[in-house]
Amino acid sequence: MSTSANGSAAAGTEALSASRPTEVNRLERVVIRFAGDSGDGMQLTGDRFTSEAAAFGNDLATLPNFPAEIRAPQGTIPGVSSFQVHFADYDILTPGDRPDVLVAMNPAALKANIADVPKGGTIIVNTDEFGKRNLAKVDYESNPLEDDSLSAFEVHEVAMSTLTQGALADTGLGKKDAERCKNMFALGLLSWMYHRPTEGTEAFLREKFAKKPDVAEANVLAFRAGWYYGETTEAFGTTFEIAPAKLPSGTYRQITGNTALAYGIVAAGQQSKLPVLLGTYPITPASDVLHELSKHKNFGITTFQAEDEIAGIGAALGAAYGGALGVTSTSGPGIALKAETIGLGVMTELPLVVIDVQRGGPSTGLPTKTEQADLLQAYFGRNGECPVPIVAPSTPADCFDIALEATRIALAYRTPVLLLSDGAVANGSEPWLIPDVSTLPDLSVEFATEPNAPDGSGEHWPYQRDPETLAREWALPGTAGLQHRIGGLEKAEGKGNISYDPDNHDKMVRLRQAKVDGIEVPDLEVDDPNGNARVLVLGWGSTYGPIGAAARRVRAKGMPIAQAHLRHLNPLPANLGEVLTSYDHVVVPEMNLGQLSMLLRAKYLTDIQSYNKVAGLPFKAEELEGVFTDIIREVTAV
Amino acid sequence: MTATDLGLPSMGGLDLVPTTDEPQKAKEYKSDQEVRWCPGCGDYIVLNTIQSFLPTLGLKRENIVFISGIGCSSRFPYYMNTYGMHSIHGRAPSIATGLATTRPDLSVWVVTGDGDALSIGGNHLIHALRRNVNLKILLFNNRIYGLTKGQYSPTSEPGKVTKSTPMGSVDTPFNPVSLALGAEATFVGRALDSDKKGLTEVLGAAAEHRGSAVVEIYQNCPIFNDGAFDMLKDKDEAAQRIIPLTPGEPIRFGPEGEFGVTTTGYGGLDVGKVADIGEDNLVVHDPSISDTAYGFALSRLGDQHLSHIPTGIFRQVQRETYDDQARAQVQQAQDAKPGDLQALLTGKDTWTVE
Q: Boundaries of each Pyruvate flavodoxin/ferredoxin oxidoreductase pyrimidine binding domain copy (chain A) (predicted)?
């Protein structure tokens, strides 16, 4: 197996190469967390380090964690922003529980993150920020670098601000501007420590600051200064190597969930041969879907930034009525506002893709944190009997496939579909085996062209259904002879005129439900390597990674456990009931108070153990490992 | 006051909508559904006027779409043998925006009322207007909530006693024309339900206008607000109150044309006797004036007691439409670089595992 990096190395960049002999420690995996003030550029630093790991061919997973405030007060705990990257020489499933290395750019970053660093872990601090004032801001009574509170860790003290300013002394950049490049110094140092390829970062900086070449060069200089600092000072005696991962063959790129989701919508437009209209209103953490799609107008995509959430989905539904692929994107609070229009979509039976990138709730909740507590809102958060299909991606890369799947269902069954992403998959990233577009599903649709009245009257009956899918015909304005009226009032079966007839309403309610219930979804696959597990762990959405990692750990201890993961939440896979009853014990971990568990208990009348945490952060593999281990012990002890 | 020529291509509101040479009749625009408004409702007259008016446009009937919200008037699409959607309360402008943006070959009409457009859907209305989406918005103003059986509306006069305001409303009402102009609407007109000729003229100009056109239609609710506009329908009263706006002509009214409109010291407009004002000092109506202040001043001549009510076209100016520009950006992007899905998915930074 070999890897080759096709990075965008621009002219003028050259690989930095190490010459000082250091002890090289070969690792299978490492977790690094960059933490600093919101204004310190930690997200960019982490993102670049991730790109370097990707270009090197490691498997990786990331966890950005940042405050909702754009710039919380400098140097305070609420202002701390961090980015964790886990990279390895094998396929990994999570961004890692605890950082092996913490880069702390100030005392607040140290204080906010130290509890997560295991004993013996490495801490690299920017000593320039550890002055009295900054220490006082976070209630450090004494300087942790001077007392023995960090004695359990390997601490590297680096005067990053001073060193960066020194490196940029000749650039003409002001002291303050020079100091702002210290994140690139940190990146350079870590890149040296972990033998990362550097050309990509230099090319990236030159492209990012193309309009400010002096800033670009300053950042490159700071980046190199960090690298050379590691190389020359002998403060660091060991460097680390993590070999490329042995992933399935093919061409890979790094991708975040929101980007993959946006690409999935682009692909859905292409595969359905429909123009796309995204009607949306900016909201964390879904806005990146809008940002990304707005760049791809050349695929026939219109992005409409509406006056509010309601208008966003309204425009999408209006576009769908006209024969476009209507899409709206939001987070939980936006779904609450869109509920009435989703109901109209259910009633008018028009295709619509509704994206909910879930965040902490209720109300405004935790805008930048993750949660999966909108499941019941997706299921039931509308007036009346108002069923909608629901799908959820398991990983960042799966966001691409799930967007295509949501579109397939919406178009084939003429219904709004709820796509439940969440902050963890949306902002997290991983390597993506780039699909060959010729293998993508064909989503093409047929519009009605002829009047369809079964009575031979030559009229068009808008609520005449396909006997297989129960979908009504999609008759577009502009088609002669098919003029018809639809709307939110109950309609007579077939003919589609307003009907207050009791039996008709009962029938239509059941038909709409039957249509959703009858959607074809693949059977649930269970991963039970030896077929001898008595405990099944069932998850949905972004918990896939930590559940899978925990299951591996449990199995590594010789304890069998079966794992299954739902991508289709409504309808549920046809074999789910059978799967649930074929295990002695079923545990469902969720980042809510047991919403899927409640649905499963009600639908299958079977006992489910719910394991819940609603902390705004993904589960840790270590935590779930403990939960699963205890359960298996209990079950086998009986 | 002078009109500004913005130098924009003068594209008509219907230029991209397919036409037919087949003569059309009002009857063809009637759906098979029984009209179910209350006897005597002003909506009947408006429906008939529109069904008579549409054939004159010569458009393919299947390329006309009516989208409504909720309320008595919003049942309108069911009675039209065109495409139509009876949507949800206040949201018709947003649904119509999505449709008009993706389908330039359609003539898209929004039917709404004073509650639908100005209360629950106020936000969508003003944003559709500022964007200048190519929509024709018919605002049926009966100054009452009819479908919910008689509560006051955002256009009800202060002090109005209704089911929900037994001691009289303490709300200050909206003047829909003023509101539309404040939102920079490029076309604003007003007509009475009973004035078939006047309404048809305003509708015709609205249809041909490229961009958002708002037409306020004073409409009688015989059940909950009967006679609200009677003073504008009585011949003698009407002559004293209605100020017909005719482009290029001095604004005057009254049984003998003895009243007129003149400018006030601070740039507003006022009503007076022509004898006092002097014929040369009468304002000559020009709806193409770009400054919304002129149309706004006209809209303030009347108050909720209908003392002076200008009818006709307040404002009619050319401005780029949202939908034309949005489509142009898509076209421009496609011309510059047609979408290549494989290239997009692959991106710039890749690595290969063999």
A: 279-492
